[in-house]
Amino acid sequence: EDQVTQSPEALRLQEGESSSLNCSYTVSGLRGLFWYRQDPGKGPEFLFTLYSAGEEKEKERLKATLTKKESFLHITAPKPEDSATYLCAVQANDYKLSFGAGTTVTVRA
Amino acid sequence: GAGVSQSPRYKVAKRGQDVALRCDPISGHVSLFWYQQALGQGPEFLTYFQNEAQLDKSGLPSDRFFAERPEGSVSTLKIQRTQQEDSAVYLCAGLGDGGYTFGSGTRLTVV
Q: pLDDT 10s per residue in chain B (111 long)?
């Protein structure tokens, strides 16, 4: 059974204070690892898909990396508008996404 | 439409009541998914449609849950005899060339 564990559960940052979120996974046959952002009362919003170990993707202040066992989401010089819950999900040999519980990031001005 | 539309946004049901949740996917999205998200948790897979065919319903928690997509577009998730443990956000997602697109969900509260 696919397992996705995210840490920490919550992260409080000062504006400009860079940090990283971790997503550890166990899956048989990874087709893709996804990062989503979820704001309160909204559905998950797509950020990145990573397909193979060593791959990296960037978007504004966010950078996602992937190894064979985990993925990191690096937030560089965060701003208050980066406050959200960040979800990691894996897709194995079918169409389902298996999600972690998320990391709630709060960035204070 | 431009995005996945779900209605109602909020639903309060008395225990034992039946509810129906609607999902209007992006036009042309053949694949449609329902997920359940409990408070403080990530979404969990419920069921999957390809056009009007329900290809996987392995995530439905009990036989009180039923989903349909009769014409391959709009989908309805029905929960019969609601229980308190059914309280959650129900998310609908479509799969297109750009990946999965989620709706904003329906927050169901069973009292």
A: 579 999 999 999 999 999 999 999 999 899 999 999 999 999 999 999 999 999 999 999 999 999 999 999 999 999 999 999 999 999 999 998 878 999 999 999 999
Helix segments in chain B, DSSP class H: none
Nearest to A26 by CA among A94, A82, A100: A100
Closest by CA position to B93, among listed A24, A99, A41, A43: A43
Q: In a mutagenesis test of the A interface, which of B23, B24, B37 is the best target, namely the one with the most A β-carbons within 10 Å?
A: B37
DSSP annotation of A58 reads E
Helix (H, G, I), strand (E, B) or coil at B16: coil
Residue A8, C-beta contacts closer than 8 angstroms, at least 6 positions apart: A21, A22, A103
Question: Residue A93, Cβ neighbours under 10 Å: how many?
Answer: 11
CB < 8 Å to B104, chain A: 41-43
